């Protein structure tokens, strides 16, 4: 299929087929009947090596406001582990499809657009944010779409995610791809970056401000590495918490003001019953942790914000060490969901507890502009080939992954490629 070079799209010839091998490029805009996908099915819920199986499935149909994207690379997130295990809920109880394709991060090329899509065209290179909604309620029209009753996460609460040659998304999910990044770098950051952005800047009046201090749990992970970088862009100070001394330098290199190793303390897990000897021992150790924060921020200077996502293991300490009138903002519970805390410190010190969930388009787009402007680093640590998607999730499940974010190649034939032309040349 010959293409007009004036469109800015590479010229190439390719046959029209019903199914293409992974990495094989169809003619621009030609939609085959079938595609390869890593599918999860209800009857094989379990660890990733069991739940993820490669299958040939139908390519998605799209409606008038949707877009079909050829996936060049995809990001690995913990919700893929949850989807495979079927916990805390099975995704099939949400979307009702026969199979589930996980993956809530991607870079790719617009391949087909619905007839009411105006802002995107075939050939556009994009990244995808993972929030979907129906767009017809008051929160989507003047409020916050994250509060919409129709709000859902693509690739987790929908079954048409990025671990397939093609994915189906709403047109409002698309954002321009940073052209200075490779396909795999572009694919790894949107979910964690936009989540971190909303946590830090999305909950008025507790937006992180210049000169303030924020405690960042899991500082070497995807969320944490972006929280530190975003704090720097705001002129704030990030104090990173790690659990492995080998990650200290990585966190400092992201711009942390200081780093604390939580293994130097013994105050983790659910809160002991207040005013028992166990509680008194916990409080002594938690205050020791608080002093470690002061060693970085200055004596008596508690953090204005705690960037929370471990949940059960760390929540009692988070609510203790944040300053009077400060905020603990939480987006996950990777160590457990049964959070406990001493509520006396919450009400007497008038602290705020704030839940946070991904981001709306404006927040995701604001974060994406920072990446396009090269003010942030994607912190990509590992890239896996298509056939190792289950192994990548096993590594994440076991917390064996390197600091930063992981990507997998889909249609991009190898790492280091930045354009469609690069991919075509690499296939020769």
From TrEMBL:
SMART domains: PKS_ER. It holds the Pfam family ADH_zinc_N. It comes from Mameliella alba. Transmembrane segments: none annotated. One of its GO terms (molecular function) is crotonyl-CoA reductase activity. Coiled coil: none annotated. Keywords: NADP. This is Crotonyl-CoA reductase. InterPro entries: ADH-like_C, ADH-like_N, Crot_CoA_red, ER, GroES-like_sf, NAD(P)-bd_dom_sf, Zinc-ADH_QOR/CCCR.
